[in-house]
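Model it.
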Amino acid sequence: MGRRAARGEAPGRVNLIGEHTDYNGGFVLPAAISQRTRIELTPAATRDVDVWSANLGERQCYRLGEERHGRGWLDYVQGITSVLAAEGHGLSGFSASIESAVPVGSGLSSSAALEIGLLRALRDAFDLELVDEAMARLGQRAENEFVGAPVGIMDQMACTFADESHALFLDTRTLGYERVPIPAGAALIVINSGVSHQHAGGDYRTRRAECERAATLLEVPQLRDAGLDDLPRVSRLPDPLSRRARHVVSENARVLETVAALRAGDLPAVGRLFSASHASMRDDFEVSIPAVDLLVELAESEQGVYGARLTGGGFGGSIVALARPEGVRAAAERIAAEYTRRSGHQATVLVP
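Modeled.
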């Protein structure tokens, strides 16, 4: 087993559309953002792991094989070494320094960027035989099994394969994907609401359980297997399962429509789909909050913005808007400033 100092990095991601569809086997459409997580790693002769978080100014340590839950941000590192060991990949201890520009709790995959960046560094440092798709699966396993967050695989796949000039059209059941160019006449706005969320919390877990229950009642393996023609049956489910399932079924259809609209350069259509997606997340899936609704409303009232929506798992986080490129940074700053004034939360423009 080779051992050498190594570096790894991965971007955060913004999901353009397709929210809460990934753990239902459906379609998603993320893109990478410029903010990245970077890891510098040096193997050690012992079994000790020493990790420094530059953002927090905090160092934590543990021994390989003695990973234990409940240590905050370190759980993402422990989760990776735990699942690597379970898959038979040999490691020694190491020291690592982590620095990230992806804001935590923003709905932009700070955790997946850490997981994939760390896996890339470990792959190079220890000559691990890992293809990119396997790393995405390991990152998801670490988060599901060790951290305890029941997330789908979109974030890890996006942090592995996405770039900033394309949307990654991903089938989360097959992991087949293709890159769809973002039209030259389109610009993205991403604004962090300043309200953090946590996927390991109860609300996200509850939504996933509701979706699984709805699929069982509809007698389909996953909600991915229900289409728009099934909405009459969906409407007969008990509340709130009917609304949860309606969101997933309609959101899958919106992803496909958005891909077609991007390919056709029909930006007003993409904007309408963004707006419809947000309404569905707010009313049917109930994962938005008043502060984020305000941010979406302010974005959509800005001239040159086609549409906006909550991006990420919800209960806080960020919004994404599609806009004309001309004056887009100034528009984003106006939206953020008015939101901060009216909500009391500090908004941050992340893109452009």
